[in-house]
Amino acid sequence: MPKKGQRAAQIAAVDMKKIDDLDSLRAAIEKLRAEMRQAAADLEFERAAALRDKARELEQLELQMR
């Protein structure tokens, strides 16, 4: 098991190069949200917060793509 703080650096592997339309962007956001919920269930709150922040960044990108 990684030491505290190391796992938070392992945020979901979302390949930004593969996000080229709204559908793939929405799929990436849903993947992040699912990982966030799992991290919170595993009591990994720092990791969950980092995943939440990344999902929010992608949501802003989604608004710009519309």
What does this 3D model show about the protein?
This protein is mainly alpha-helical. 62% of the residues lie in helices and 0% in strands. It has two helices and no strands. Helix 1 packs antiparallel against helix 2. The N and C termini lie far apart (41 Å). The mean pLDDT is 85.
Compile the SSE list and pairings.
Layout: H1 22-41, H2 45-65
Helix pairs in contact: 1-2
Give a short overview:
This protein is mostly helical and 66 residues long. It contains two helices and no strands. It has a domain at 20-65.
Keywords:
66 residues; 62% helix; elongated
Low-confidence stretches: none
Helical content band? 55-70%
Mean pLDDT: 85
Q: Termini, distance in Å? A: 41 Å
Strand content: under 5%
The biggest beta sheet is recorded as: none
Shape annotation: elongated
Q: Which structural category fits the helices and strands? A: mainly alpha
User: What is the gyration radius calculated from CA atoms?
Assistant: 12 Å
Secondary structure tally: strands: 0
Number of separate helices: 2
| Run of helices and strands | HH
